[in-house]
Design goal:
The protein is α+β, with helices and mostly antiparallel strands. It has 9 helices and 26 strands. Strand 16, helix 7 (about 330-340) and strand 17 form a beta-alpha-beta unit.
Length: about 575
């Protein structure tokens, strides 16, 4: 997986703009800071892709930014104008296997302005402007963003390039739309202004993001702690959570059941283990599998790294293969273990810190693959002589990426990761969330739990009026992909069977098409809208609203159609 980072605030000035989304939605103005022939102004020829009709590299990049602004605009309420300065630059670190994709943040902060919900509290300037009902810093932009131009020129991430389509068919490339949405999320408020190295608040004043952070171990929120406690909390892996009420409500709508890696015997090392998951291979099995753990041996160099064909396959067949990280890819290690009949793979980290997230793709890998810490791997290997039994699978009692009380975890690795720690959801969330610190291929331009966090920090004054953010916790309703070009699926849950009507409206409230009016069974449902109106003609590019009505409930949402 590839690192995405956060940037602190800097001074800036305002320049050009792009088209506004519909009324009652935020307007994003783009400030192009690139020079002639670079970044947004790159004139290199490009082939239209995934609904992006741009014919130059620069135009495709601009189109992606416009799409991201339209998407965020549909989620953010009222007639807010948000000025974003952006550019493409070579960013470091970046090598053949990993790199920084982008960075963004609020340019300034404000507190104790007219309309501020919480006194003595910093708000990112875009949110402060919204709450104040006026531009508190009219001479500067609100958000600054940079994106890695090296991704497209072969000097970073090898053959991987930016993908400029809107359909999330990026394959081995990197979906720029999701990265832009992620980075704008930081600038809109998903970031703390706390000095994580010292634990000190900016000018000794908490920010609204930090007021929603809670340390499970210490039993205190960040605004209750002293600097040292906050410094410790920033690296308290697995125990820093979001304590806002709306993220707590939203978590069951987006997160699936937690996965489980547990050592069952011997007693000396028994217990649940912190673990990472892979982008490839089978999901955690349900019901869970239990098997003996056997250390792989490939007979060459570091014999336990499985970078060559495994020679003790007879012992591993039907067992869980224990493999050390290093030298070759995670996919190669899993391939080697599966080839000799392993039922699962545990990869031990070879450096201190949290378990490694594992990127890669190989549809032929059909066994689950997990990673554990270096300390846990060392402990397991120390007991293999007496026999180690492990369980890998689903833990239906807990949400993936949340604590026992259902509070969603924040990314708090040890040691601290500058630009990534705290201002992201944790990587244990499943399905992956937009505001995790690493890019994931299953993202679909949904604001997922970010919109709930934005409710907690003050973006939505009347939550009951925002269809995407329920006050109670009904089953999730959404459309994917969003935005879309050819078709999108509208997915919802029915508490009981009965007649259902699904309709699509334009921004003026006019009926575009009635997709269905029929009896449907209880449970999860999916209906497709092909982007056409009642006459069968393609609906114009823009934002649409859909509404599902049954005898007991009404669900609605927004979807954006792009050419």
């Amino acid at each position: 997986m590839l690192r995405r980072t956060v940037l602190c605030w800097v001074a800036a000035t305002i320049a050009a703009l792009h088209p506004a989304p519909p009324a009652k939605a935020a307007t994003f103005l783009l400030v192009n800071l690139d020079g002639p022939g670079e970044g947004f102004n790159d004139t290199a020829a490009a082939t239209p892709v995934g609904g992006n009709t741009g014919t130059t590299l620069g135009q495709q990049r601009l189109n992606v930014f416009r799409a991201a602004g339209t998407i965020w605009g549909t989620y953010l309420p009222d007639n807010v104008t948000i000025v974003v300065e952006a550019r493409f630059d070579p960013l470091t670190p970046c090598d053949a296997s990993s790199g920084v994709l982008g960075s963004a943040g609020a340019i300034s902060v404000a507190s104790d302005f007219t309309g501020a919900p919480v006194a003595n509290t910093w708000y990112p300037i875009a949110l402060a402007n919204k709450l104040a009902g006026t531009d508190l810093a009219p001479s500067s932009a609100d958000i600054t963003a940079r994106f890695n131009s090296s991704v497209d020129n072969g000097t970073c991430l090898g053959p991987t390039n930016w993908y400029y389509g809107y359909d999330h068919e990026e394959g081995s490339h990197i979906d720029l739309l999701d990265v832009v949405l992620h980075e704008l999320g930081h600038g809109l408020g998903f970031q703390t202004f706390t000095n994580l190295g010292t634990g000190a608040f900016l000018n000794n004043r908490a920010d609204i993001y930090a007021r929603n952070l809670f340390d499970v171990t210490q039993g205190q929120s960040w605004d209750q702690m002293n600097n040292q406690k906050r410094k410790n909390s920033a690296v308290n892996t697995g125990n820093l959570v979001w304590d806002g009420a709306y993220v707590l409500v939203g978590a069951p709508l987006f997160l699936g059941p937690a996965s489980l890696v547990r050592i069952d015997s011997p007693p000396a090392i028994a217990g649940e283990k912190e673990h990472g998951t892979a982008e490839f291979g089978a999901p955690p099995p349900d019901p869970s599998l239990q098997a003996q753990v056997i250390l792989a041996d490939d007979g060459v160099g570091t014999t336990s790294d499985a970078c060559e064909p495994i020679v003790n396959g007879a012992q591993i067949a039907g067992k869980i293969a224990m493999i050390d990280r290093g030298t070759c890819t995670f996919v190669q290690k899993a391939q080697a273990a599966q080839a000799v009949g392993a039922v699962a793979v545990i990869i031990g980290n070879n450096v201190a810190g949290p378990p490694q997230g594992m990127a890669g793709s190989d549809p032929s890998i059909t066994i689950p693959v997990v990673s554990i810490t270096q300390d846990d791997a060392t402990a397991i290997k120390g007991q293999l002589a007496v026999g180690v039994t492990a369980t890998i699978g689903v833990d239906p009692a807990h949400l993936a990426g949340a604590d026992a009380q259902g509070r969603v975890k924040l990314y708090a690795p040890s040691p601290l990761e500058s630009g990534s720690s705290v201002s992201h959801f944790d990587i244990t969330a499943t399905p992956n969330l937009l505001m995790e610190p690493f890019i994931n291929t299953d993202l679909t331009s949904s604001s997922d739990l970010t919109q709930y966090a934005f409710t907690d920090i003050g973006w939505y004054a009347d939550v009951s009026a925002v269809a995407a953010i329920p006050v109670a916790a009904p089953p999730r309703a959404f459309s994917a992909p969003n935005p879309f070009s050819a078709a999108t699926s509208i997915r919802f849950h029915l508490a009981q069977s009965g007649p259902v009507t699904l309709e699509v409206f334009d921004t003026r409230g006019g009926l575009v098409k009635r997709l269905q009016s029929a009896w449907r069974p209880a449970g999860f449902q999916s209906l497709e809208w092909d982007g056409t109106d009642a006459t069968g003609r393609r609906a114009p590019t823009g934002v649409y609203f859909w509404r599902v009505r049954s005898e007991s409930q009404t669900r609605s949402g927004r979807v954006t159609r792009l050419e």
